[in-house]
Write a structure and sequence with these properties.
Shape: elongated
Oligomer: single chain
Helix content: over 70%
CATH architecture of one domain: Alpha Horseshoe
Number of strands: 0
Low-confidence stretches: none
Mean pLDDT: 94
CATH class of one domain: Mainly Alpha
Order of helices and strands: HHHHHHHHHH
Number of helices: 10
Strand content: under 5%
Structural class: mainly alpha
């Protein structure tokens, strides 16, 4: 805080926000980060604004303030629609909220922008599992496994899909 008071500018504010996060005061940190992300300041690049808003959103998620978190993610993506960490974080929030259409949109966008990353394939597989497209879920899960064979959440998803298939076959009998 001394650095900020002594004219450290926005870099000092970033440092202060990180300190508040470390202390567990996510509300103060999120407010600082949202203010930083709201407008470009001298020496600040757009990617930094995206990072600030994404970190603010993550702090809001910790606080259970999901609507504000989504607004922060949306603001960050309005600055840079190709921000992969931001989009995947927002998609995970949609997953937690079981907002399947929104999850599908972000998963599709991740696959379109970075098909070489497993996260989009994994998220779309979850969406497809939850909407009873078991064959589609399996295909996407397999693609995610090809890209990151040791990713635990994908292996767990494989088990969930297998169980859904088993239950579907039992229901048919």
């Amino acid at each position: 805080q001394t650095w900020r008071i002594e004219g450290g500018g926005w870099p000092a504010e970033v440092c202060e926000a990180h300190a508040f996060i470390s202390l567990g005061d996510h509300a103060v940190a999120a407010t600082i980060l949202e203010e930083l992300g709201a407008e470009r300041r001298a020496g600040m690049v757009e990617e930094e604004r995206v990072d600030f808003l994404t970190l603010a959103a993550e702090s809001r998620v910790v606080l259970g303030e999901t609507d504000t978190a989504l607004a922060d993610y949306d603001a960050a993506l309005a600055i840079d629609a190709s921000a992969i960490l931001t989009r995947s974080s927002r998609a995970r929030l949609y997953l937690d909220q079981q907002d399947w259409p929104a999850l599908s949109r972000d998963a599709e966008e991740l696959i379109r922008r970075v098909p070489e990353l497993a996260i989009g394939w994994y998220l779309r597989a979850v969406y497809r599992l939850e909407t009873d497209d078991l064959d589609g879920a399996w295909a996407d899960m397999e693609r995610a496994r090809e890209l990151e064979p040791e990713r635990i959440e994908t292996l767990v998803l494989r088990g969930r899909i297998n169980e859904a298939r088993r239950l579907a076959s039992v229901a048919e009998d």
